[in-house]
## 1
Amino acid sequence: MKKKNRTFLLVLLALVILIGGSAILYSRLSSGYSAGVLTGEAPEPSATDEELPQAPEFTVYDLEGNEVSLSDFLGKPVVLNFWASWCGPCKREMPDFDSAYQELGGEVHFLMVNVTDGGRETVETASELIDEEGYTFPVYYDSDLSASTAYGVYSLPTTYFIDSEGHAVARASGALDMETLQAGIDMITE
């Protein structure tokens, strides 16, 4: 009986350490970064440009393997979306992103960043989905996971709205409908 109690206590202690360590790791990865959270309605601006956080720099790759950095897109607002081909909510929002890109692609950069882990998600599986659906927005591959790490992405889809000066204005987790996507775009284009 004592052996079972000792084993139970060791397992319980291991779980407490694991959960506590995860919380500490999450807080360290996400410290210093906070953008407004976007809901169905565009919130009132609560910060001046000086108070808005600078969006973290990252490097991703295009289909040919060329490096592309966030700083390459300064000067125009950016819609930064993290997604994967196996993600149902990601696939549900893609038609709206493609429509917005077709309408606003000259005014707003759309960075559709595939979280390419090399296991469950590969360049091939992601590219196949884009080709099958006929999407026209540009797709970039986060094959070293530096972009998703820089932004603390822990669920897909996640979208960030970045103004033309590189300030992170808002973020949204989960699939966006067209109304919410437009609200985010309005926040970075007005």
## 2
Amino acid sequence: MAKHGKKHLQAKEALGIDKLTIEQALTKIKELAHAKFDESVDVDINLGIDPTKGDQTVRGSVMLPHGRGKAPRVIVFAKGDQADAAKAAGADLVGDQDLIDKISKGWMDFDYSVATPDMMALVGRVAKVLGPRGLLPNKKLGTVTTNVGQIVSELKKGRVFFKNDKQGLVHFSLGKVSFDPSKLQDNLSAFVKALAIAKPPVSKGKFLKKMTLSSTMGIGIAINPDEMA
């Protein structure tokens, strides 16, 4: 059985309420945060899907109105005009073979990678490195595109991807403890709306079954999913 630290247990005792409104929960998370760093505020949502069936996969993206508190590092595999467009949109690093060589040597200091379709054969050389980390450009997510400028701009402004795990759960970061609760709530609202759009047509019954908010080092606070309807 996992043992929690003294501060974690004190926070749990201080909570004293099983369920709070979303606004109350976010305020409480800020009050009870005890780490020495700016913790992330996360939401875990149990979905009404069968994760073993491919036609019930929940995958999508959302533009968070207030971002996550840290500008993501975006690299782009492109040449010529597309490379110029990526740089103009704010890409942190743009290249082709030189970028492949850099990654092959162990460099992984980025959050997203984007590629033009003609570069994917080259990118395939590091697919075994990028794939397991969720960093491989993907056409379904829009990160394999002929409009690299647009996707780079969106990623920099706060577009984030999500996907359910093998347990039918979606884990998502809403921002930082230092955020105002209203901004965290705006981000949560945007995420839940995007999640609803991504609901598989074959999924029946209650889609948002259970929702829990927490900070990186804090306790989980259950909230009513129906409050987001």
